[in-house]
TrEMBL record:
InterPro entries the record matches: RimK-rel_E_lig_ATP-grasp (IPR039523)
SUPFAM superfamilies listed in its UniProt record: Glutathione synthetase ATP-binding domain-like
Protein name per UniProt: Alpha-L-glutamate ligase-related protein ATP-grasp domain-containing protein
Stored Pfam families: ATPgrasp_ST
Species of the source: Microbacterium imperiale
Domain Alpha-L-glutamate ligase-related protein ATP-grasp per the UniProt entry, residue ranges: 175-315
Amino acid sequence: MTTPQPLTPGLSFLWERARRVNVAALVGRARQAAARHGRSTPAVVIDMLWQAGFRGVGFQDYVDYDFAMLTSAERSTYMTSPVSHRLALQFDDPAYRHLFHDKIAFNRTFDEHLQRDWMVVAPGNATELRRFAERHGTIVTKEPLGRAGLGVHRYHASEVTDWSRFHRGLLDRGETLVEEVIRQHDDLAALCAGTVNTTRVTTYFDGERTHVLAMAQKFGRGAVSDQNAFGGFYAMLDESGRATGDGYDSNDRVYEAHPDSGIRIADFRLPMLDEVVAFVDRLARVVPQVRYVGWDIAVSPTGPVLVEGNWAAGVYENKPSATGIRTGHKPRYLAAIAATDAAPRTVPAAETAAA
């Protein structure tokens, strides 16, 4: 049984955290939150610092989840990035994290669940690359250690005129993982056909049972990735797979409808939900030493497909101004973890708060 860790950080932590605060970023986020919720910027700055130091709330969490409009009790129900990171450090064995961090190692480990062709670019295999690309028409390349969608690119075989040069370019840029493009379910393609719109399913595996902690549907804007850096946004899903309200992103934009297709986000319902839940249960058992994972799943016409898994699961949470719901998912996280008697029933204080 894990020894409980203190709920609040010590003075040494607070001093170190204060030394590393990005003041400009803090004030910019505070000004943004104050303008949206009708509060003074100095008051929000003080509140953000207090929440970061004593409650493990990242500055971006504070803005994204409308903490400026929530009560203390409502805030306490939210999972935050620093607390999530602490859980990942506690429940994801360091000896196995590389199987998720390195995308090539991940593909090798989870190959049977990818349900798509893939290959690794290496010196001397330009001909193999050409055959792969021409067979599929369009390919996606990835930098093995890229994160948040960065390092992901899309190419069309018909546009390549010199395969030796193309192959050499991939090697030089480190784009060494090449994959077939996933075909997504028609219900997802209707929103944005140009991007594979993935579902983030955050799970905790207790050694016997896989607990689904939260689900979020991500929506792309036609780029190769549906991540925020590519213009994407998301909506939380309830237990029936329905969107809980409008979509939103980390730039404080709210989307009542998809900007490209015009489809109302609140009307979205994830197809094949039961299959997705059963699928992540199977995934969680492949590397049981990594217990807390954020899975990115694409639903194809025939069922769920694994895109990737993230050992540092990240946080997708409810935004009250977009949904009208003023509570988050932390009680669900804690209930799943506490039920195993493997963790403290209070959330350990965050080691860092995102600046």
